[in-house]
Amino acid sequence: MARAIRLIEKKTQTKSEKQTESMGEILKVMSDNREAITQFLDILGELHKSGVLDIAQGVMKNRAQLGAVGFEFIKVANIPIILKNLIIGVQFLGRLDPKKTQMLMDSLSKGIEQAGQPDKEHKSMFGLLGMLRDPDVKASVSTALHFLQGMGAGLSEHDTDADKGAVRH
Amino acid sequence: MIVERVTVEINGQEVTGEAGQMILQAVTEQGEFIPSICYQPQLGPIRTCDTCMVEVDGELVRACSTPLEPGMRVSTESQLVKEAQMEAMSRILKNHELYCTVCDNNNGNCIVHNTTERLEMAHQKYEFRKKPYEVDFSHPFYRYDPNQCILCGRCVEACQDLQVNETLSIDWSREAPRVIWDTDVPADQSSCVSCGHCVTVCPCNALMEKSMLGEAGYLTGIGANILEPMIDLTKEIEPGYREIFMVSEMEAAMRESRIKRTKTVCTFCGVGCSFEVWTKGREILKIEPSVDAPVNGVSTCVKGKWGWDFVNSEERLTKPLIRKGDRFVESTWEEALDLIQSKLGNVKETHGPHSIGYISSSKCSNEENYIFQKFARAVMGSNNVDNCSRYCQSPATSGLMRTVGMGGDSGTMVDIQMSELVIIVGANPAESHPVLATRVKRSHKLTGQKLVVADLRKNEMAERADVHLHPKPGSDLVWISAVTKYIIDQGWAAKHFLDKRVNGYEEYVKSLDIFTLDYAEQVTGLSKQQIIGVAEMVHESRSTCILWAMGVTQHMGATDTSTAICNLLLITGNFGRPGTGAYPLRGHNNVQGACDFGTMPSYMPGYEKISDPLVRTRYEKAWGVKLSEQAGYDNHQMVDGIQNGDLKALYLYGEDMALVDANSNFVEEMFEKLEFFVVQDVFFSRTAQYADVVLPASPSLEKEGTFTNTEKRIQRFYQVFEPLGESKPDWVIIQEVANRFGAGWNYTHPSEIMAEAASLAPLFSGVSYERLEGWKSQVWPVGPDGAGTPILYTDRFHFPDGKANLFPVKWTPPYKPEEQYDLHINNGRLLEHFHEGNLTYKSEGIRHKVPGTWLEVSEELAAERGVKDGSLVRLVSPFGQVKVRVLVTDRVKGKELYLPMNTPDPEEAINRLTSSLFDIVTHTPNYKEMNVRMEVLEKDGEKPLPRVNHRFATRNPQIGVRVEDKWKRPDFEPVMDTIRKEGEEHGQSHSLN
Fold it and tell me: Where is the 2Fe-2S ferredoxin-type domain (chain B) (predicted)?
């Protein structure tokens, strides 16, 4: 005869049994990764000595409030604008043709070199105008003028768009 | 079927497609991309999003809903198309804030995200505006955020026309339209049946599984006080969408390693839905259905979508238990197996191999059933092996075998869906086979499929039916035979079909003499007109499917009624063609497979008779043993065997027989008499309480295998989790037990078991794990080349001469106890719970909707007996009694009661009332034949079903999302008009050529 029974006697692990089991598992993982762990502990020690851990602890423990304050700070300190400018700046750099940049930069450094050399004689107004005949100077000035022209075109295009009030993509 | 081909020009290339095919499909098949947000293959064109605009002969049209026409010139790349798609997308993003990196839906499959990205949209044209509504968090399983809702209407289409529960709609008449539930009530209080369709098809994060929120992403668990400023900051500094998308892409890629996606097959009914389970560690994030799933596509029901919490339940068995005195003691596997070896071995030694019974599980895999019967037969030398199909579907199988030769559905759900007439007898698929029911409901609603339902209750299908028949209990055979006779008498029989393909016509016609309209009217209580009406419907339909389940099979005349159904289908030629056939709806996920793979006392795998020496020889050679030719005991005979002392021990797995066998008081008494009882289960079931050893098994999510659904479709499921604790997959346990008895098996993976079964059973010869990989499936019989058979009997019936048999049957009047038991007690399933409830009651959300069972009492009877919602009554039958709370409803009539079977509490269990009587052919209990008397214990009490259950709400039916109402809004402007206007403002004009 086997009556229905509901009682189940569970072998419950005692706290210390559970602890011993977990310790065993942890020790195994540690010994498998002995070198990495030793090095990591060394770094941890340094971080502790230098006080970095203290700061990190403070930040983590108060992350919710800090986060909120952080975003408030970002707003007050106009950081979105800085970030936006940064992104636009980066995008600008991304659009430049590296070859042309290289050429301009090379020329710039030559220019700086030249500019750094002391004038042999004091140039008169005519002397300066005379320099425009120098082919190198001419090239430089015409590049600058082209740049201004292009920028001007860009500015006026922007004005027209703004007048229309619709940005089309 | 011959498909007409048409040639069109797409982007200058000549392309051939099917006539009637939409441009979107034709272009997608070419590997080209057209954005499409509201279009979903299963839902069809919805036409709300306008992102799929293409140019056809100079005009803008929607690719999703414009069919190919010969010679049409399509451009998907013109400037006009690009501008139209951008305009459409901008309109969508006006309703949707892109904070993808911190959104739980950013898992690589967000359609709004992916489309915005594919369109290379850089900035937003229209500013995002919140809608003036709160987020609806009321429902236990999902939440709706109107602010993120793009109003594409996918959810509405899915609810109205795919699931056909008709709860959701978009109220286009409001200033700010939104999705509403019924007449705008909180989701939890609506008619929503929690099927999950809407959440699954939502192309963004507007409808989300609550289990995903704060869990899926790395940053999504952040509190609102940080999240909101973070979103604001991102928006403020945003360089453009493309850069944001890169960040979100990286984050989505990081999620891939921590969210595991595993395909599985649902275990909550016989429909066989498959889907992915998304998990993080042991936590289920969500169930994600896929259009690739062969049975269900994106469809699920409440159990399949949300009912899996049991896997991590604290109550799971994790160690073997051994009975010691008045308690069970946890033991090691060694101890448990030692005990089984010695005790079971001892019984076998002392009383012979036939003194042990083996009860297999219709919830476990084909492979597990195969090796369990192999264990019983080859290792233990007994054919005493059976499964729970004995409680439900054996009579249907017998009826089919008598007439057409194969014990399974004659076609697939595709046939049911396309049939012109569906007749449902004694089945409630809307609750018991919910996803299958959706296909009928959809065809009935949209394509004019006719529906006849014969049931005692006005269940959902009956409510929707063109004709609801309410015959007297147990009289189905009579009206079905009367319909058949009337059809023959009118000369409507399918003569050509009968002449060529069917035996026994003359004799059968003679046997129908008694089933006159007068006789049928008198026995069934149906009117002659009703019977003639059904006959006319069958006659007028070019294709008819008949679906039946336990309302037919759990009677004393069950096999005969199943036979009568097959006879009707034969007489009218409704076999062997698309859209026709007989469909016994299998209840459990693997009832079909358990029988297919041989856990039956007289059949080897693949329905080959154990009595056939050729069959035995084949298995004897392969297994290297001598097999017993003596047919074994079925479940019912096993219980009787215990009573008369023949059966001394039982090994049962995955079945709560103490609750689900009829006359459970008697069954429990018999269990007490066993010398030794092994129970293997996921939970400590009612049956386990009688065991000597309880073995902890792993459910489907913790193992691999295959299941066979009601269509005879074999599908693979993959392992999601490691087995919990020390539990093990059933096939592993069975092998370990078998090896204790010298089997010497070494199966390392279920695929090896399937390979063996396929090599021995001709029915499955081409079945293999490779051919079943991922979403692939095979419908048996499967030939050696792997080709399945979705429609049976197209050329021949499964008999030596290839002809079907008309099989004369007589009506067996149902059991009726004496007069004092004056109320008929009907029973069956609930949508929300599975079986005795060991699994689904573990889900808090499901309990919130349905905390327990109840007794349905008609309004008339309630008035007569002075009971109301919440009254406590005792029901008494000659076999036992239960105590339940009342729910008064018009679903039942007069003196007919309904008690759902889904309760783990024996005090409320229907089988305390049922008898040990059974179907005369198959020994399936006559669960549906019982009368009781009712005693009122308490007049007042709490309603057993909470107000938040869908049964109390009123649906809001309409066809689809009603996009025309959107177009009629004063603020709606067709995309084309907007572009033209803006073009003119810019001084440009779009050339239309």
Answer: 4-80
Across the interface, whether the CB atoms of B684 and A8 are under 8 A apart is answered yes
Mean pLDDT score of chain B, rounded to an integer?
94
Nearest residue of B to residue A9, measured between CA atoms: B329
Same domain, B716 and B746: yes
Tokens read off for B764: 């499955």
**How many Cα atoms are found within 13 Å in the side-chain-facing hemisphere of B654?**
29
Q: Provide the pLDDT for residue B747.
A: 98
φ, ψ (nearest 5 deg) of residue B874: -110, 135
Domains of chain B: total: 4
pLDDT at A168 over 60: no
Q: What average pLDDT does this structure show over B6-11?
A: 91
Tell me the two tokens of residue B378.
């080859």
Structure tokens at B58: 């100079």
Is B362 part of a structural domain of the chain?
yes
Give the CA count within 13 Å in the CB-facing half-sphere of A145. Answer: 6
What is the mean predicted confidence (pLDDT) over B185-205?
97
Find the chain B residues whose C-beta atoms sit closer than 8 A to any C-beta of A. Answer: 86, 121-123, 125, 222-223, 225-226, 229-230, 233, 236-237, 239, 243, 319, 321, 323-324, 326-330, 668, 671-674, 677, 684, 686, 689-692, 982, 985-986
* CB pair distance less than 8 Å for A8 and B671: no
Please list the alpha-helical segments (H only) found in B64-106. 79-93
Residues near B496 by Cβ (< 8 Å), separated by ≥ 6?
B573
Note whether A67 contacts B237, CB cutoff 8 Å.
Answer: no
Query: Using one digit for the tens of pLDDT, what is the confidence trace for B155-181?
Result: 999 999 999 999 999 999 999 999 999
Chain A nearest C-alpha distance from B117 (Å) = 14
Asked whether the beta carbons of B407 and B395 are under 8 A apart, the reply is: no
CA–chain centroid gap for B10, Å, is 41
Record: contact A169-B689, CB cut-off 8 A: no
CA atoms of B88 and B49, how far apart (whole Å) = 7
Single out the residue of B905, B878, B384, B358 nearest to residue B663, CA to CA.
Answer: B878
| Chain-chain contact of B327 with A5 (C-beta, under 8 angstroms) | yes
**Which residue range is the domain that position B67 belongs to?**
5-92
- Is B709 found in the same domain as B626? yes
Give the C-alpha separation, B707 to B267, whole Å: 9
Contact: A6, B236; criterion CB under 8 Å: no
What whole-number distance in Å separates Cα of residue B217 and Cα of residue A80? Answer: 25
For residue range B123-156, list pLDDT tens digits in order. 778 988 899 999 999 999 999 999 999 999 999 9
B454 and B495, same structural domain? Answer: yes
CB A5 to CB B329 under 8 A?
A: no
B449 and B386 in a single domain? The answer is: no
B182 phi and psi angles, rounded to 5 deg: 50, -120
What are the distances in angstroms from CA B91 to CA B86, B491, B975? 9, 62, 10
Helix, strand, coil shares of chain B as percentages rounded to 5?
35, 20, 45
Residue of B93, B237, B670 to mutate for A, most A C-beta atoms under 10 A: B237
- Give chain A positions within 8 Å (CB) of B230: 71
How do residues B59-86 score in pLDDT, each as one tens digit?
Answer: 999 999 999 999 999 999 999 999 999 9
pTM, entire model: 0.90
Partner-chain residue, chosen from A8, A166, A168, that has the shortest CB–CB distance to B328: A8
Q: Are residues B750 and B782 in the same domain?
A: yes
Taking each helix axis as running N to C, give the angle between helix A15-32 and helix A34-49, from 0 to 180 degrees, rounded to the nearest 10. Answer: 100
Q: Cα angle vertex B97, ends B91, B103, to 5°? A: 135
* Sheet hosting strand B73-75, strand order edge to edge: B13-18, B5-10, B73-75, B53-56, B59-62
The pLDDT of residue B88 is above 90: yes
CB hemisphere CA count around B19 (13 angstroms):
6
